[in-house]
UniProtKB/TrEMBL annotation, chain B:
The species this protein was found in: Aurantiacibacter xanthus
Glucose-methanol-choline oxidoreductase N-terminal domain sequence ranges: 6-338
One Pfam family linked to the record: GMC_oxred_N
Entries under SUPFAM superfamilies matching the protein: FAD-linked reductases, C-terminal domain (SSF54373), FAD/NAD(P)-binding domain (SSF51905)
Keyword vocabulary terms for this entry: FAD, Flavoprotein, Oxidoreductase
Name of the molecule in the record: GMC family oxidoreductase
Any GO MF annotation of the entry: flavin adenine dinucleotide binding
């Protein structure tokens, strides 16, 4: 299982874009431990695949190195600092405690906070927009990955036909694809 | 080397002009200002990429987006997989007046925007060609529907258009391939709309995608659509029409085609003695070296704004206001379509079914306002593009708070049927909406920048209100709950249907082109891109550009053989 998981992680984050060894932006080992714990709590493996199978922590680092502006990096640093302080040191807590604390934090941070006209394809405005964005990145990185699109959702790169009506069965999964951060 | 014809631009219009001219035996030079790209080349077309292959998950780096793509980034099709198909705004500047933005979306490469286009393919109707005359606005089209109908058929047959025959006078049928059928959500919506709103029709979107490949498509290496809906990245199967997939290969096989890329046309050379254009002056995009190419006939298909820029920059002592601009109409009457008028609704009264495949189109609601005269507070009309889908995945996961298994379970669930409805409205020609050359600044190739001054008017404002009210009414009549109604107020240009800057017309004093797309003043100069449009209709315009191009090419070839030019 570990080997399979590591293999999937490599393929997923390699495609998204890893931070280069000599990239000016790299997270510390401590930060990576925190990001790993957070990603695992937000999208756990369960009986299928989760964020760690998809290589989300490394992909998150790669995204910060290759995609994010300084402003976004600072925004994420603020979120990580706040989350890292939960429970007096989030990364070191037992998984169950992490889940409980993060679920409470998540519910409070994502309390609706309407701010005028909403973005059409974005989640509704929340009280803590910085955390909302962090979570959005983690979740999108997972659902754009091969493990998620082949185990949790459905994705056929080459459908080859259009069938306008098919029955829904217990196995039916929504079609996945890329999204915007 | 001299040519029979030079075609400026290799996009939707230039590709078709080149095909038709070469097939009539003319030696044709196509000049493309952008770089060469090749169908099926991995670096040029990225339809091979799985979602997990997309750099940064499909997102353009934020600093790069802000610095290089502030305008292009407004286009829905820009992603990390397509950014190489859009210009960098930082390298290709233009000017707009304070408070009057215009979004000029461009792709400088072989095939131009035909690579990334939305492929919606509709005919204008007799009503559209009569509109300016009826309303006393703009230039009366010098042609009517019957003049162009055979050329619509000609182009449709060549490019391949999927669609259904509906018998609607405001949206004439064509020579269609089988349609991509409506899904169950759309069928229910169709039934509700057509019963509650007599005169409105919900039909399969007509798209230039091969629902089946006929022998003449296969001869060009084109295969049926694989229903991936990755079209803006290019198509290794050649299943949608683009210059790269269809028209340029057709021209190439004649043996009469020469293509030069990285060739930026500076101006068209005019000889006052003969009263004709003799060639074009070109700047090499890379070396910036100048050269001149000569031909008996010139087709300007540089895109609406690019064509105006070239004509205005071709001013001479004989034509000080710009080439073929005695009417002062070059650059004027810039139009687009009203865009980003969106209605989103969810439904809980529809069949619990799904669909398979990513169809490259949706449904279309043809215009239904002002069909029999003007009985609305505005002139002209609008249509809707839309579709029904069932979401889930990341968007469902993020729709509310929650982590862990709860979040994953929500993502796995098939969401409710969701309607996405987008209005496209006709914009009136207005001579004050115009392109001019900047007097103080040139680009890196020494060509004056364009100044684009364009704004929607009162007619468009009134139309937008009705579009949004209609969108809501139709969604609710079908049992939907409207979750978003956005009249985005997007700037002109973002519809990417800019047109009108060298309009056709009967009166040489009020138009630039005659009924053959020939400039009134320079008989061997033809303009067949969007610049030629005298009015915009509300239909996606590319088919009309191509039909005009084919028709004009046929005329030019005949005139040449008869010694008229």
């Amino acid at each position: 299982m570990l080997l399979a998981g590591a293999g999937a992680a490599l393929s997923a984050c390699d495609a998204i874009g890893l931070a280069d060894e000599d990239s000016p932006f790299r997270y510390s080992a401590e930060d990576m431990a925190l990001i790993t714990a957070l990603a695992d709590r937000i999208v756990p493996k369960g009986d299928s695949v989760g964020a760690l199978d998809a290589g989300v922590p490394a992909a998150f680092e790669g995204l910060m190195a290759n995609w994010a502006s300084e402003e976004t990096r600072a925004q994420m640093a603020g979120v990580l600092a706040a989350l890292g302080a939960l429970g007096g040191g989030f990364a070191a807590l037992p998984a169950g405690e992490q889940s409980r604390l993060l679920a409470d934090y998540d519910a409070a941070a994502l309390a609706p906070a309407p701010q005028g006209e909403e973005e059409l394809f974005s989640p509704p405005s929340a009280k803590d927009a910085d955390y909302q964005r962090f979570k959005q990145i983690i979740v999108l990185l997972f659902y754009v990955s091969e493990p998620a699109l082949t185990h949790e959702l459905a994705y056929t790169h080459m459908p080859g036909r259009w069938d306008p009506s098919i029955p829904v069965t217990p196995e039916t999964r929504p079609e996945g694809g890329a999204g915007s951060f | 080397m001299d040519f029979d014809a030079i075609v400026i631009g290799s996009g939707m219009s230039g590709g078709m002009a080149a095909k038709e001219l070469t097939e009539r035996g003319l030696k044709v030079l196509v000049l493309e200002r952008g770089r060469n790209i090749e169908r099926g080349k991995k670096e040029d077309q990225t339809d091979w990429m799985q979602p997990w292959d997309l750099p940064n998950g499909g997102n353009v780096p934020e600093d790069e987006l802000a610095a290089d793509y502030p305008v292009q980034g407004q286009c829905y099709a820009l992603s990390s997989a397509t950014k190489h198909l859009f210009v960098k705004d930082s390298e290709h500047p233009y000017k707009t007046p304070e408070g009057k933005p215009f979004s000029w979306i461009r792709g400088y490469h072989l095939g131009g925007r035909s690579i990334m286009w939305g492929r919606q393919t509709y005919r204008l109707s007799q009503m559209d060609f009569e509109a300016n005359a009826r309303d006393g606005i703009g230039s009366d089209w010098p042609i009517r529907y019957d003049d162009i109908a055979p050329w619509y058929s000609h182009v449709e047959n060549f490019i391949g258009v999927s669609g259904s025959r509906e018998g609607l006078p405001q949206l004439p049928d064509g020579d269609f391939l089988p349609p991509f059928a409506l899904n169950d959500g759309e069928l229910a919506f169709k039934a509700a709309v057509e019963s509650r709103f007599p005169g409105r029709k919900v039909i399969p979107g007509r798209a230039a995608n091969l629902s089946e490949a006929r022998p003449h498509h296969q001869e060009l290496g084109r295969a049926p659509c694989k229903v991936r809906s990755l079209c803006e990245r290019g198509c290794m199967f050649g299943a949608y029409h683009s210059s790269l997939n269809s028209s340029l290969p057709a021209a190439e096989r004649t043996g009469n085609l020469t293509v030069i890329t990285d060739a930026i046309v500076h101006s068209i050379v005019y000889d006052p003695a003969s009263g004709k254009a003799t060639g074009v002056q070109v700047v090499d995009a890379k070396t910036k070296a100048g050269s001149t190419y000569k031909a008996k006939v010139i087709f300007c298909c540089a895109s609406t704004i690019g064509t105006a820029q070239i004509l205005l920059n071709s001013a001479s002592e004989a034509m000080p206001r710009g080439l073929a601009n005695g009417s002062d109409m070059v650059g004027r009457n810039l139009m687009d379509h009203l865009y980003q008028m969106l209605t989103v609704a969810t439904f809980d009264n529809l069949p619990d079914t799904y669909y398979f495949g990513r169809r490259p189109t949706g449904f279309y609601i043809p215009r239904y306002r002002n069909l029999n005269g003007n009985d609305e507070p505005f002139l002209r009309g609008y249509g809707f593009q839309g579709g029904f889908s069932r979401k889930g995945g990341a968007s469902a996961a993020l729709a509310q708070a929650g982590i862990g298994e709860e979040l994953k379970a929500r993502a796995r669930e098939l969401g409710p049927w969701t309607l996405f409805l987008a209005g496209f409205g006709e914009v009136l020609p207005n001579p004050e909406n115009r392109v001019t050359l900047d007097k103080s600044e040139t680009d890196q190739w020494g060509i004056p920048l364009v100044n684009i001054s364009c704004a929607f008017g009162e007619n468009e404002r009134k139309m937008t209100e009705t579009v949004q009210a209609d969108g809501r009414a139709m969604a609710e009549a079908a049992g939907g709950t409207v979750t978003a109604s956005i009249s985005g107020g997007s700037p002109p240009g973002l519809g990417i249907h800019e047109m009108g800057t060298a309009c056709m017309g009967k009166d040489p004093g009020k138009s630039v082109l005659n009924k053959w797309n020939q400039t009134h003043e320079v008989p061997n100069l033809f303009i067949t891109d969007g610049a030629a449009m005298a009015s915009s209709g509300c239909q996606n315009p590319s088919l009309t550009y191509m039909a005009l191009s084919a028709r004009a090419a046929d005329t030019a070839a005949s005139m040449l053989s008869e010694g008229v030019l």
